[in-house]
């Protein structure tokens, strides 16, 4: 089972529109989470431009000694990334599932304005259930 530390959603302009902390030891305040999102957006964009491989979509996995950072970018440019324990498996499936929840509960919400912070109770509830049900609900997908 994977320990998920935090989840971020960044709009195509690099603005943090959703952040959820799942009890990591070093909790961050709002300013720190905004900095992390902005830094990741910039690194992701630079990696696309500097890649020697044509058609590179940017960094998908960043591995460190104490955490892994997995990223999924939708076709619209919205980035979903999760910070988890090193060596965690199936994080790509988690991010795709979060994207499905995003499209189902956020984008179909008539009161949601594109590129704005996500304030959707159904999205929060379903995301929490997905992450907490054995910490990885999507292993069988």
TrEMBL record:
GO biological process entries: endoplasmic reticulum to Golgi vesicle-mediated transport
Cited Pfam families: Sybindin
CDD domains in alphabetical order: TRAPPC4_synbindin (cd14856)
Residue spans crossing the bilayer: none
Keywords: Endoplasmic reticulum, ER-Golgi transport, Golgi apparatus, Transport
GO cellular component, one term: Golgi apparatus
SMART domains attached to this UniProt entry: Sybindin
Compartments (UniProt record): Endoplasmic reticulum; Golgi apparatus, cis-Golgi network; Golgi apparatus
InterPro entries in alphabetical order: Longin-like_dom_sf, TRAPPC
Subunit (UniProt): Part of the multisubunit transport protein particle (TRAPP) complex.
Family (UniProt): Belongs to the TRAPP small subunits family. TRAPPC4 subfamily.
Name by which UniProt lists this protein: Trafficking protein particle complex subunit
Organism listed in the record: Phaseolus vulgaris
